[in-house]
Amino acid sequence: MYVYIYIYVYIYMCVCLYIYVYMYIYVYICIYISYMYMCIYIYIYMYIYMCVCVRTDVVAVTPWLAPIVWEGTFNPVLLDSIYKPKKISIAVTVFAVGKYIMFLKNFLETAEQHFFVGFNVHVYVFTDRPKEVPEVKMADGRQLTVRLVPSSKRWQEISARRMELIQKLIDEQLRKNSDYIFCLDVDSKFHDRWGTESLGGLVAVIHPGYYLDNRSKFPYERRSASKAYVADGEGDFYYCGGAFGGILEEVYLLASTCRFNFEEDAKNGIEAAWQEETSCYYFIYLTDCTSCLLTVLSPEYLWQDFKARNPEVKTIRFSGVIKNYADIRPNV
C-alpha cells in the first residue's frame, strides 16, 4: 500500500518538476524573443533617427507626441523605399465647380511634377463643367476621372456637399482600388515634393495663418449649440479645410461625421463660419489626443501665395493661389 503511495508521490513530483522546467524554459524563450524584438525596434528607430535631421527651430512634436512633418525631419529616399514595394494607390479629390474650373489646369500640371511622383495616383475631378476639364499628360500609373455634380448658387452649399460626395466616392469606387485618399483645394498649386512622408491614418495640415498664434486667436466654432463647438481653452492647433486625407476608413469616418454635423446644425439654423474647415477641425480635435493614427503636416503643405514665407518655412510644397473671391464665388 505504502509502495503505491510513494510511487504516486514520486510521479506527482516528477510531473510538477517537468511543468516547472517547461514553464521556466517557455518564459525564458518569451523574454529572449521580446528582447530581440526590442533590440530590432531600437535599431530600426535609431537608423531612421540617424537618417533624418532634427529641427530645433520649429515645433516638431505635438503634445500627444506625434511628429509634425517639416522639411528636414524625414528622409524621402528611405520612406519611398519602404512604400514603393507595397505598390500603394493614392486617390485625390478636387472640386472644380463653377468658375473654380479655371484653377484646374495649374493644379493638375503641378501635381504631375510634385505629388507622389512615381506612385499610382488617381485624380477624381468633381465639376459641373466637364467639357472645360483640361487635357493634361499624366505619367504611367496616373489617371484622371471626371465626376459630374450639379451647380450651386451658394459656395457654402458646394462646400457642405463636398463631404457627402467624398463619402459616396469611397463607398462606390475607392474601396476597390485605393489605399489612401487626399482631399485638396483646386485653387492651389504644388511647388515642391508632397510624398510618402505625408501618409498616415488621418492626415491634417496646420493652418498657415494661425500656426504662430495661441489658441485664443483660433477661429473655432464658439456657439455651444453647434455640433462643431470647441470650448475656450481647448485645442492645440487650427487645421486647414483645404487639405486633409489618410486611409479610406478614417477619411470616410471624418466625412460622415462632418456631414452629420452639417445636417444637425442646419436643422437648428446654424451654419458654421468656415464650413467643412470648422467641422473637419472638430473631428480632428476629438481624434488627435486619443489616436496615434494622426499625421500632422506643417504649413508647408498648404501655404498661401499672398503670405510672405517665414524663415522657419524652408520650402513651400502646396499653396493657395491669389484670387478675387468676388469673381469666382457665386454669392460673394
From TrEMBL:
<feature type="binding site">
    <location>
        <begin position="185"/>
        <end position="187"/>
    </location>
    <ligand>
        <name>UDP-N-acetyl-alpha-D-galactosamine</name>
    </ligand>
</feature>
<feature type="binding site">
    <location>
        <position position="187"/>
    </location>
    <ligand>
        <name>Mn(2+)</name>
    </ligand>
</feature>
<dbReference type="GO" id="GO:0005794">
    <property type="term" value="C:Golgi apparatus"/>
</dbReference>
<protein>
    <recommendedName>
        <fullName>Globoside alpha-1,3-N-acetylgalactosaminyltransferase 1, like 4</fullName>
    </recommendedName>
</protein>
<dbReference type="GO" id="GO:0016020">
    <property type="term" value="C:membrane"/>
</dbReference>
<comment type="similarity">
    <text>Belongs to the glycosyltransferase 6 family.</text>
</comment>
<feature type="transmembrane region" description="Helical">
    <location>
        <begin position="32"/>
        <end position="50"/>
    </location>
</feature>
<dbReference type="GO" id="GO:0046872">
    <property type="term" value="F:metal ion binding"/>
</dbReference>
<feature type="transmembrane region" description="Helical">
    <location>
        <begin position="6"/>
        <end position="25"/>
    </location>
</feature>
<keyword id="KW-0328">Glycosyltransferase</keyword>
<keyword id="KW-0464">Manganese</keyword>
<dbReference type="GO" id="GO:0031982">
    <property type="term" value="C:vesicle"/>
</dbReference>
<feature type="active site" description="Nucleophile">
    <location>
        <position position="277"/>
    </location>
</feature>
<dbReference type="Pfam" id="PF03414">
    <property type="entry name" value="Glyco_transf_6"/>
</dbReference>
<feature type="binding site">
    <location>
        <position position="277"/>
    </location>
    <ligand>
        <name>an alpha-L-fucosyl-(1-&gt;2)-beta-D-galactosyl derivative</name>
    </ligand>
</feature>
<feature type="binding site">
    <location>
        <position position="185"/>
    </location>
    <ligand>
        <name>Mn(2+)</name>
    </ligand>
</feature>
<feature type="binding site">
    <location>
        <begin position="95"/>
        <end position="97"/>
    </location>
    <ligand>
        <name>UDP-N-acetyl-alpha-D-galactosamine</name>
    </ligand>
</feature>
<dbReference type="InterPro" id="IPR005076">
    <property type="entry name" value="Glyco_trans_6"/>
</dbReference>
<keyword id="KW-0812">Transmembrane</keyword>
<feature type="binding site">
    <location>
        <position position="207"/>
    </location>
    <ligand>
        <name>an alpha-L-fucosyl-(1-&gt;2)-beta-D-galactosyl derivative</name>
    </ligand>
</feature>
<dbReference type="GO" id="GO:0016758">
    <property type="term" value="F:hexosyltransferase activity"/>
</dbReference>
<keyword id="KW-1133">Transmembrane helix</keyword>
<keyword id="KW-0479">Metal-binding</keyword>
<keyword id="KW-0472">Membrane</keyword>
<keyword id="KW-0735">Signal-anchor</keyword>
<dbReference type="InterPro" id="IPR029044">
    <property type="entry name" value="Nucleotide-diphossugar_trans"/>
</dbReference>
<feature type="binding site">
    <location>
        <position position="100"/>
    </location>
    <ligand>
        <name>UDP-N-acetyl-alpha-D-galactosamine</name>
    </ligand>
</feature>
<dbReference type="GO" id="GO:0005975">
    <property type="term" value="P:carbohydrate metabolic process"/>
</dbReference>
<keyword id="KW-0808">Transferase</keyword>
